[in-house]
Amino acid sequence: MEMTSSTKQSVLITGCSKGGIGDALAQEFYSRGFLVFATARNLAKIQHLKDLGCEILALDVTDENSIEHAVQYVTKKNGGVLHYLINNAGMVYQTTILDVDISAFSQVFATKVFGVVAMTKAFSPLLIQAKGTICNIGSMSTYFFTATNGAYAGANSALEYVSHQMRIELKPFGVSVVHVICGAVQSNLHTNRLLPSMSPSSLYYPIRHLISQASNPSFIQENIMSSSQFAETLTSKLTREKKPAMVYLGSGLWVAYLMSFMAWCAGWLVGVRFWDLVSEGPMGMKALKGIVEREEREKEKEGKKLV
Questions:
Q1: Which GO terms describe its biological process (predicted)?
Q2: CA–CA dist 85, 107 (Å, integer)
Q3: CATH number for domain 10-254, candidates 3.90.1150.10, 3.30.420.270, 3.40.50.720, 3.90.980.10
């Protein structure tokens, strides 16, 4: 007998634009017979999921009215229950702190942290009714303290803490919370990132090419986990009877483990300055220091000539 909307297990996934992790997860859950609510800010980017058979919704996780509309739609469509909420929406914004656009920096946190909290709060009655599961997609960037990545890594670090808080607080109501540390996965996240061009007036302009090279994700796009493989593995873990508290999934995670271990070991000697050493070469900070010192010497010489 074919399952109706009211008898199917349901999942709502944020950030399902074509070519990303959310897209792959929506297709994987749908293939397993779930009622899938695939969402994105732009419906045109998820039309292919509607053609597949998923329910699609325009959803901006930073907009309370948009979230409330989604709650009403899911409630009406699925009888007031939601079995899985996957908070996947996110954005990448890379620049130096001195060149930062505060509104863009804030938007990263609004999407990855405040949006997750707002979605969880709004959908909690449906999740509690279903004894459901919340899955928050984080990143291994949490373990790297490097230049230009403060917004993305900072938001994901905050999200991990929020996930732990959620897990503790929602457990009494039968709701499971799973936090995912996502390694390198083929997706459109970096393709759609905010990487502003550097102004010639920037103090970092002399090393712009080094920063651009270090921020360019093309070197991790080869031999990495496909989004479909990621989705298949994660879906299997989420649909187990006993949910894991943490999931580490994706390519390159061994680098995060190694760097974290090295940082811990180095901490006994140099503390967090270990990451200063890591960033000096690849990010061009050592080269910039040399440029600044050379300019200061030249200014000093010019000053002596004028005297």
A1: phosphatidic acid biosynthetic process; triglyceride catabolic process
A2: 21
A3: 3.40.50.720
Phi first, then psi: what are they for 205, rounded to 5°? -60, -35
Q: How far apart are CA 251 and CA 184, in angstroms?
A: 5
Tell me the DSSP string of 104-139. Answer: HHHHHHIIIIIHHHHHHHHHHHHHHHHT-EEEEE--
Contacts of 290 (CB under 8 A, 6+ apart): none
d(CA 226, CA 184): 9
Domain edges within the chain: 10-254
**Phi, psi of 82, deg, nearest 5:** -145, 125
Q: CA-to-CA distance for 260 and 303, rounded, in angstroms?
A: 47
Determine if the pTM surpasses 0.90: no
